[in-house]
Design brief:
The complex is a heterotrimer of chains A (288), B (325) and C (253).
Chain A (H helix, E strand, L loop, with lengths): L2 H32 L6 H19 L2 H22 L9 H22 L16 E3 L5 E3 H23 L1 H11 L1 H6 L4 H27 L5 H16 L4 H21 L4 H15 L9
Antiparallel strand pairs in A: 1-2
Helix pairs in contact in A: 1-5, 1-8, 1-9, 1-10, 2-3, 2-4, 2-8, 2-9, 3-8, 5-6, 9-10, 9-11, 10-11
Chain B lengths: L11 H14 L2 H24 L10 H14 L8 H23 L4 H21 L9 E2 L5 E4 L2 E5 L3 H24 L1 H18 L4 H27 L1 E2 L6 H14 L4 H21 L3 H15 L7 H11 L6
Antiparallel strand pairs in B: 1-4, 2-3
Chain C lengths: L3 E12 L2 E12 L3 E5 L6 H9 L6 E6 L2 E2 L5 H6 L2 E4 L11 H10 L16 H13 L15 H14 L4 E5 L7 H14 L4 E5 L3 H7 L2 E6 L2 E6 L1 H6 L1 H8 L8
Parallel strand pairs in C: 3-8, 3-9, 6-7, 7-8
Antiparallel strand pairs in C: 1-2, 1-4, 4-5, 9-10
Helix pairs in contact in C: 3-4, 3-5, 4-5
Classes of the chains: A mainly alpha (288), B mainly alpha (325), C alpha/beta (253).
Chain lengths: 288, 325, 253
């Protein structure tokens, strides 16, 4: 592997890892703070991607699509939390698994009814459609760099949010001691609603961001969901920074796995997970 | 069960009789449907041993079902019937062996981790069959001729015969049911119930809990293997889809729908699921939408599963509708 | 001197920067009831958790008949005769009293993995369970579901379960907590009866009970041993009076 190829693969794994982080951070936050295991989280990624597709074809502009899409997914998150999830906090994980499994089926079929089962492409915005020439034969698309940039920006934003804002303080307190937060007079229901909406929006946004490079297809949400579980298991449930590290590790493992042993690439991340489980059954990091 | 058993009317002999007599009246379609339900019941009971009786919520149970089904194809000659003496134990052992290896990893985790890790390991095994040529890749493989049981030249049982197949499935259902009943009242069964009730105390009483959970996990894997064997024989082909997480989700659904922790519940759940699948499937190609709606409704209003329905109805009629716990 | 069974040597446990136990050493002999006193937060429960293996120590050694068991898992310690009860009742609430104890007795037998026999078909296990139930004074409640017992009865069951494992060492974390006067008296009587055959460590708030049954008392303050000796010595110790007894009533948890 020459240097340019290596560099391209490195950038690809970074981009993939960061995208996974966007989805997985919501998953791990929702579990860490609300104690909810949400199988339908991948569906939000799928929704985001399909919104990007549908809204772009309607409006002809990805940016408009993304803005409308974000608003829509936040709304969906709020409604779901209000209508269903808020009734599940005191139930055991089994009920949560069951309900969110049912939601996956519903979301997939709705997608099939509304948009159909075809694979669609989403055009890269013209502004970002250029490529950077790395060597005579190899180039790297600007859009992928843009994706990584946006993800890094969002990660920084989350760091700031959790670390330095009042909401973040409440989130941190809520994840460690629910009763105490309530005793302090903080409206825990509102925090849950915000965190859930945030998680949904992040996952959907990741889907929108990925749509132009990955295309949109049935089942894309489930694929992402299971990899995100691996991210959460490796990073430690509830740990946002663990999710970041794990997502980047998986990005590297998957991307270079495909280069080194293409036939077994699908397995590489799971082998990584198995190794982490032997070493630290509770994940690399614990808690936020 | 450790609890003093309440005297209940036993419908089991009646159900058994009905199942035994059914093929005399049923058409081929219904015979196959009932056989499918019985196979799924074995599968669901095997998972119930983990979820309902040990408190291990596994979301990867299809892996053991699937590898066993694949083993049937791999252990059978291409154009001749496989030897049942070899294929059946082979399938059960494959399920159990894979469960052993997976168990060594996943049983190190608890609670929500366990759910995610079992799912991830099942997905790993899915990819083994999906991405490698081992079992025909993503297309799967055909079981051209189903296994038969011979002694010398004489064919005793031939799974290619639909009638024989039906009764073999019924026999295995009875065997699996009795086996689990016996297991549950054994020292191991009581220890598993203890782990479900209070794992921490089991440890402090001196039980090597990991080994017990592994024993339960391997047993469940072997039983799922039996179901996988029968399923491969029924449909005559295997694809990676039988290892998919939908399959794991569906069997978990059967267990919960029927009400966990009762073997009869697993049967009710399997029956309800397969019938719903057929009915909804006949209505629309988007049948999963209806299935999803049923699931969401059951979780929201019936936390104890379908088998709690009669009790709840009774409660509604008598007690004026006390719900939830 | 009686047989030395279990001893702690310089045992420490840190939580973050705080020491819950610091350099704790004590000996437990067969036939000796060793009580541990101390105000809340003195590290008594931590000490029991360290000895039983529920917590790994940050430093020091635990010796069982001279063998270092500091790295052993809790279940291994239990199989080697270290039985413990919990301050917060820790039972199988859905099982009957008998099944709670029968299961406890089953932990002693290698036949536990036999799957084709009735769990309740082993006479020796049933006897061990019934004996423990009798000792704890629960015979009349044998077939009651444990979750429906009164608080005091659940405390008795807690002890019965430990006894059913036929331990040589008993680590008892506030067995009298929440018991009525009559139940307390019965428990004190039971402790006296058990002492000759066991090495007992008793963590308890009830001073009268402790001075009534203890052969040796160790007083802990802020994770450290303040003084250790026979009850008279503790009663007369100036240091103990200043640090603990003199400072008003010990608060209840």
């Amino acid at each position: 592997m020459d240097f340019s190829t290596f560099l391209i693969q490195l950038l690809n794994s970074l981009q993939y890892g960061l995208l996974l982080f966007l989805v997985a951070s919501g998953l791990t936050l929702i579990f860490g703070i609300m104690g909810i295991i949400n199988l339908a989280h991948g569906s939000f990624y799928m929704m985001g991607a399909y919104m990007a597709f549908s809204l772009t074809s309607l409006s002809g502009n990805l940016l408009v699509a993304v803005i409308v899409g974000i608003a829509l997914s936040a709304l969906i998150g709020f409604l779901l939390e209000w209508g269903l999830f808020s009734r599940l906090y005191k139930r055991d994980h089994l009920d949560q698994v069951l309900l969110t499994y049912g939601l996956i089926l519903i979301f997939e079929e709705l997608r099939s009814l509304i948009v159909g089962d075809d694979v669609h492409g989403v055009p890269i915005p013209e502004l970002l459609s250029a490529s950077i020439q790395l060597s005579e034969t190899l180039s790297y698309p600007v859009y992928r760099l843009f994706m990584s940039g946006v993800c890094i920006l969002l990660a920084a934003l989350m760091y700031w949010l959790i670390r330095y804002t009042r909401l973040g303080m409440m989130i941190r307190a809520g994840s460690s001691n629910r009763e105490m937060v309530q005793a302090l007079g903080i409206n825990i229901d509102l925090i849950y609603r915000i965190v859930f909406g945030l998680g949904v929006t992040l996952a959907a946004f990741a889907g929108m961001l990925a749509a132009p490079v990955s295309s949109v297809y049935p089942g894309m949400g489930n694929q992402v969901l299971i990899i995100c579980f691996v991210v959460v298991v490796i990073g430690g449930v509830g740990s946002v920074w663990g999710a970041l590290v794990a997502a980047l590790l998986i990005g590297l493992t998957d991307t270079f796995g495909k280069v080194i042993a293409p036939d077994y690439a699908g397995l590489a991340v799971y082998v990584l997970m198995a190794a982490v489980l032997l070493w630290r059954p509770e994940g690399i990091f614990r808690r936020i | 069960m450790p609890l003093p058993a309440k005297k209940k009317r036993n419908y089991l002999p009646l159900v058994l009789l009905a199942l035994a007599l059914f093929p005399i009246f049923g058409s081929t379609y219904y015979n196959e449907l009932i056989a499918k339900i019985m196979i799924m019941t074995i599968f669901a009971m095997s998972l119930d041993l983990l979820v309902g009786f040990t408190g291990l919520v596994s979301f990867g149970h299809a892996a053991f079902f699937g590898v066993a089904a694949y083993s049937v194809v791999l252990l059978s000659p291409k154009y001749d019937p496989g030897n049942l003496w070899l294929v059946l134990p082979g399938a059960i052992l494959t399920g159990a062996a894979v469960a052993f290896v997976v168990g060594l990893f996943v049983l190190r985790t608890k609670g929500i981790y366990f759910i995610m890790v079992t799912l991830a390991f099942a997905q790993m095994i899915y990819f083994v069959f999906h991405d490698t040529p081992l079992g025909g890749g993503s297309d799967g493989a055909f079981l051209n001729v189903k296994p038969e049981l011979r002694i010398g030249e004489k064919v005793l049982l031939d799974l290619n015969e639909p009638m024989q197949f039906y009764y073999i499935v019924l026999a295995f259902l009875v065997v699996a049911y009795v086996f689990l009943r016996v297991l549950l009242r054994s020292p191991l069964g009581h220890a598993l119930a203890g782990i479900k009730s209070n794992e921490h105390r089991m440890v402090s009483l001196g039980f090597p809990v990991f080994l017990y959970k592994l024993a339960g996990f391997v047993t469940a894997g072997g039983l799922a293997g039996l179901a996988g064997f029968l399923s491969a024989c029924q449909f005559g082909f295997v694809t990676p889809e039988i290892l998919s997480w939908h399959q794991s989700g569906n069997v978990l659904l059967m267990v919960i729908l029927g009400g966990m922790g009762t073997l009869n519940g697993a049967a009710i759940g399997a029956f309800a699921f397969v019938v719903l699948q057929e009915v909804f499937g006949a209505l629309t190609k988007h049948w999963q939408l209806l299935m999803g709606a049923v699931i969401v409704t059951v979780v929201m209003v019936l936390p104890g599963g379908l088998s709690s329905l009669p009790r709840r109805l009774k409660g509604l009629l008598i007690g004026g509708g006390a719900r939830h716990g | 001197m009686a047989e030395l069974v279990l001893s702690a040597r310089g045992l420490s446990r840190r939580f973050g920067g705080l020491y819950a136990n610091r350099d704790v050493s004590l000996d437990m002999h067969k036939g000796v009831l060793h009580a541990v006193l101390g105000p809340n937060g003195a590290g008594k429960s931590t000490l029991i958790n360290l000895l039983s293996g529920d917590l790994p120590p940050s430093g020091g050694q635990i010796l069982l008949r001279g063998q270092d068991i500091s790295g052993w898992s809790p279940d291994r310690r239990s199989r080697n005769g270290i039985g413990r009860s919990y301050q917060r009742t820790n039972i199988f609430p859905g099982f009957t009293v008998f099944e709670n104890c029968r299961l406890a007795a089953q932990s002693r037998t290698p036949r536990a993995l036999r799957i084709f026999s009735h769990a309740t078909g082993y006479a020796d296990l049933c006897e061990a369970a019934d004996k423990a139930i009798g000792q704890a004074g629960l015979s009349a409640r044998r077939d009651v579901v444990a979750g429906t017992l009164s608080h005091g009865e659940q405390r008795q069951l807690e002890i019965a379960m430990v006894l059913a494992t036929t331990p040589s060492v008993l680590l008892l974390d506030e067995p009298l907590a929440g018991m009525g006067p009559e139940e307390s008296q019965a428990m004190v009587g039971l402790l006296k009866k058990l002492t000759p055959d066991h090495a007992i460590l008793l963590v308890e708030h009830d001073m009268d009970a402790v001075f009534a049954v203890a052969d040796v008392i160790t007083v802990m303050v802020t994770g450290q041993v303040l003084e250790s000796g026979p009850p008279e010595q503790i009663r007369e110790s100036v240091a103990v009076q200043e640090a603990y007894l003199g400072a008003g009533e010990p608060d209840d948890e």
